[in-house]
Amino acid sequence: MTSPPPSAADHSPALSDTTVGWVEESDGRGTLGLIITCLFTIFLCTWVVIRPRVCRRPLIRVLHKIALFLKTLIAPEFIAVEGLQEWSQARGVVKECKELTGGSLKLVHAFYIGMLALRYRTPRGNRVIWPNQYTWLLRQGLISWDEHEKWGLSEENIRDKSNADGTAKLIALGQVLWFVAQSIMRAAHHLPLAQLESMTLSYVPLFAITYAFWWIKPKDVLSPSVVELPDISEAERVTFESMAVSHAFDDEGLGKQGSLWSIWSLTPRVFEKEAEDRTIQDARHELSQQSEVFTAPRLQRSTVLNEETLAKYTAKEAVVAHWDPEVYHSKILWPINCLFGASFGALHLICWDTQFPSYVELWLWRASGIASIVSMLVFMLV
Question: Quick one: CA torsion of 250, 161, 42, 80, rounded to 10 degrees?
Answer without folding.
Answer: 60
